[in-house]
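As practice, study what follows.
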Amino acid sequence: MKLQFKAVENDTLSSIYVKRVNRPYVGGDWHFHKEFELIYFLEGQGMRIVGDHISNFQKGELVLVGEWLPHLWRNDVVSGEDVSVDFIVVKFPKQFDGVDLFSLHELTHLKSLLKSSNRGVLFSNAVRSKVHNLMLQLCESKSSEKLILFLSILQLLTKDINSINLSGPNFSMPREASGGNRLHRVINYISTNYSKNLSLDEISEIAVMTPPAFCRYFKTRTNKTFSLFLNEVRISKACQLLINGEDSVKQICFDVGFSSLTNFNRTFKNFKGTSPSAYRESYGPFRRQNLELAT
């Protein structure tokens, strides 16, 4: 897997690209593009990478990704289900046929939202519920109706006082964007083998580098150490299992790659500010609702 530039599918009849996607799997490549991207997950769960941020996503997530910001959503494939992921993606440029729509006096307040998207913006559940129906309508709309709905959605997003930025303020485009694939090979290997006892020597071999050189290389390009990044992946997966699964905390500890429950609890609290058990309990209503829907 390497970081790819991805061009938006052409639609000569519209300046805004909108598509609803239903398929078993998403997450084939880490990519970037010159358009802004608004993505809304109706179904699915898995791992999310936006810039130097890595975490887990759930259904109901709504994220705005800025121009040129590398991103990847990789869902957990659920065996026996025909559709594991269902999402709406909206891509739009800063300029529409050479006209900067957002420079219009009536729309200049949207510029702050677009600026925030340079780090990726995760919106709150409250705002997500307000735009849910509008996003569904947007998939079916055409011509001026599409533009009106699109601007209505952006208007609501600007009012979200509880939105958060995802990528760090110091993130810069990886050098591999110009053609290499070493970093992306490493990230892909970590995200696939996080449950194993990954050593620095092993991951350095994947990067075809000596361990000291790899440590410098990885820190320069991600602003994180290898061990920190690996723990982020593991804790992210643990959060998914705690929310959606019924396995014990001890079992989850070993399933995500920790060899010690004490180390798992300490690392989890460092990342989440609470214990795994308390984290699971905080999602009690959500877990009970999902259980009721399943039965």
